[in-house]
Amino acid sequence: MKVSAIAKILGGRVKGDDSIEIESIASFDSATKTDIAFCEGTTCKSTPTKAGCVIATIDSGFESAPAIIFVDKPKFSFAIIANELRNKTKPTSGIHSNSIISDSAVIHTSVSVGSFCTIEAGAKIGAGTTLMPGSYVGADVTIGENCLVYPNVTVGEKCVIGDDVVLYSGVVIGTDGFGYVRDGERIIKFPQIGKVVIGNRVEIGANSCVDRGALSDTEIGDDTKIDNQVQVGHNVSIGRRVLIAAHAGISGSVVIEDDVVIGGKAGLGDHVTIKQGAVLGGGSGVYPGKIVPAGFWAGSPIQQIREFKKKEALIRSLSKHNKEIRTLLSKF
How far apart are CA 327 and CA 214, in angstroms? Predict the structure, then answer.
């Protein structure tokens, strides 16, 4: 991709040679003449680089590259171009001869299906999507356009995947939720007949699992990003632009509103509601049924961050106070 084309995508201004061809991204230090890198603030002003193009702010003072694209947010712009370059290196379209495809599946001619994939009856896969080896697409599944499905992903029957979604290796979408009913000593499975509906531009990390709904659907909104090894229970509703870090566990019927951030190893009990804009620190524990307003939260049970810090400081000071108390008691 030429520098001129990159600048047009970013809405930036070029200084230098806009005809340079860029093939890939790289860090500022390791970049070569066919790479694009970025410079934040003035940190790179006097640092040499071999990058063919650098994305920087106009006030960075950076001038030592064959081409510079000036934008307001270099790191964000760099991420945009990284995705554009990745999309240009997709596998060629076609279906590998080792894959098993139902005659009633509808697959766009530009789709790439790797070896040992299975696509069941009634499935629909949109233009530009790639299925890497070993992936399974269940009956009546819909996968949108320009999705990237890494090896050994499972998408269960009737689930709906939007456009530009990335599912990393080992992801399972639409397995049965953990729902049971008890009568004395007998435990039987509650029906799990809902589906999973995933919006556009969602990314789900390796070995994460999203359970199908029991009687209604499990939903994930546009632009949400989920890290590796995250469990999303049945009937969960996750809003837009939500960030969930690794090892988080989200119980059934939880509602997570837009723009929430959930730290690693957080645990959310069933029927919890996390309100828009809330930030939960790593290891947070939210008891069933609790409503968590916007703000910064930490600890288990969860509490506002300022209260959490006060209690942590008090606990750390206990040993000192214990010595003082013992000293006072010894005088009586």
Answer: 61
